[in-house]
Amino acid sequence: MPSYRRVLILGGARSGKSRTALQLAEQSSSQRIYVATAQAFDDEMRERIALHRQERNHSWQTVDAPLELSQAIQAQTRPEKVVLVDCLTLWLSNIVLAERDPSREADQLIGTIREAQGPLILVSNEVGQGIVPSTPLGRSFRDGQGRLNQRIAEACDAVVFVAAGCPILLKPAPPLDLRLA
Question: Is 151 exposed, middle or buried (CB count within 10 Å of its CB: 0-12, 13-18, 19+)?
């Protein structure tokens, strides 16, 4: 069975993508770093963060990186440990809210992913399969998240889509024969 150093796990809200990422990380190394991008701005988010922490056992070290994700990945990735980033959607939201340049930040992140010195698992929401957002900001964010996911997928060795808790390998995939009959 092949092994992959950089893995992107995509899925919708409550699809099981974080659980899948945790399981994958726990299979790959005994040294585990969880890079959290969430910020607890309200009670509901604090509760979500607490639930995510309960899903991880004592073997996990948590690093908070709501904005400085590239730096956290650079500092933490090593061949002997696995780094799990959860999630890129919250990171991009933080970047937008901080009025930082998403394109420049994405360029830096892509470079960091390509240069990662150890196993790296990235979790992101697939936001383009739902209802079209009603506001320009919502549509702009959806489009930006879609572009970011494409670029991250290109930089990763494997891409997994999770639906209803079931992981589906998207990359690597057999080549498509697009010739018309």
Answer: middle
Quickly list H helices, 29-101.
Answer: 43-55, 69-76, 88-97
Task: Give dist(CA 71, CA 140) in Å, integer.
Answer: 26
Phi-psi region of 99 (alpha: psi -120 to 50; beta: other; left: phi over 0): left
Q: Which residues have a catalytic role annotated?
A: 52
Q: What is the pTM of this model?
A: 0.91
Alpha helix (H) residue ranges in the chain: 17-28, 43-55, 69-76, 88-97, 102-115, 136-155
Structure tokens at 57: 């056992």
Cα–Cα nearest to 163, from 15, 21, 23:
15
Contact, 67 vs 100, CB < 8 A? yes
Q: What is the pLDDT of residues 88-133, one digit of tens each?
A: 999 999 999 999 999 999 999 999 999 999 999 999 999 988 788 8
* C-alpha gyration radius of the chain: 16
Query: pLDDT tens digits, residue range 134-179?
Result: 899 889 999 999 999 999 999 999 999 999 999 999 999 878 777 7
